[in-house]
Amino acid sequence: MKKIRRSIIAAVTIAACSSMLPAEGFAGNGCGGASWYALRSKTASGERMNPAILTAAHRSLAFGTKVKVTNRNNGRTVVVRINDRGPFIRGRVIDLSRAAAQNIGMVSSGTAKVCYQIVS
Question: Which residues form the signal peptide (predicted)?
Answer without folding.
Answer: 1-23
